[in-house]
Design the sequence.
């Protein structure tokens, strides 16, 4: 079956611009997560959705970052006024129910480069 | 503040031998631990997990050991195969929480 997909795979933008990153989770998975992986680091948690609602957004670094999941499936991570420090691979993951021991399945990521 | 640490950025092992990857954590609230494997240009793939009520979990060639008193876990791969060459991430979560805390990864190279 289809795994988690993310588009675009690569995004290059200029400092100050707005970007949107899309995630298509595995069909039927109610939980969706966004992580950010900077060079040489492990993935860092950003936000977790249970259905349509953001159940935990404690990892969002500041108010330039926002994410939505309006129909409980596809999610979009939105970054306003991008900065060079936002350059990273943005990973999306989904799990069946969101229970702590549920396996999180990751997509291939979107590599964001802010010039 | 890195709550999950992988102090070895890389490891090289001969094919057929045992690979041992190590991970330390500082948060005593962690109760679930996982290992993920990552190939270039792909997302991390779940490999094996262990709950804090156990000290060992085995799945084929992969075994994870947990030492709670030392706040240490390790992944053993035996026998190692060239296809195991990848970056391995240790991750942990607190009871009732959904987000994972990851280490910085260890790049394993299995030499044929």
Sequence:
């Amino acid at each position: 079956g289809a795994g988690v997909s993310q588009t675009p795979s690569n995004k290059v933008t200029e400092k100050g611009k707005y970007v949107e990153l899309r995630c298509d989770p595995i069909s039927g998975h109610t939980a969706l997560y966004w992580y950010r992986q900077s060079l040489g680091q492990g993935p860092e948690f950003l936000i977790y959705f249970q259905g349509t609602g953001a159940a935990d957004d404690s990892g969002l670094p500041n108010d330039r970052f926002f994410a939505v999941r309006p129909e409980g499936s596809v999610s979009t991570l939105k970054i306003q006024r991008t900065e060079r420090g936002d350059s990273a691979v943005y990973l999306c993951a989904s799990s069946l129910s969101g229970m702590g021991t549920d396996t999180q399945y990751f997509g291939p990521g979107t590599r964001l480069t802010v010039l | 503040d890195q709550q999950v640490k992988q102090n070895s950025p890389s490891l090289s092992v001969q094919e057929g031998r045992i690979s041992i990857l190590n991970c330390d954590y500082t948060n005593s609230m962690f109760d679930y631990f996982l290992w993920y494997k990552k190939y270039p240009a792909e997302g991390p793939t779940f490999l094996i997990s262990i709950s804090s009520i156990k000290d060992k979990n085995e799945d084929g060639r992969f075994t994870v050991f947990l030492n709670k008193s030392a706040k240490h876990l390790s992944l053993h791969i035996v026998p190692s195969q060239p296809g195991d060459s990848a970056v391995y991430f240790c991750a942990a979560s607190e009871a009732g929480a959904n987000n994972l805390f990851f280490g910085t990864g260890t790049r394993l190279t299995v030499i044929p």
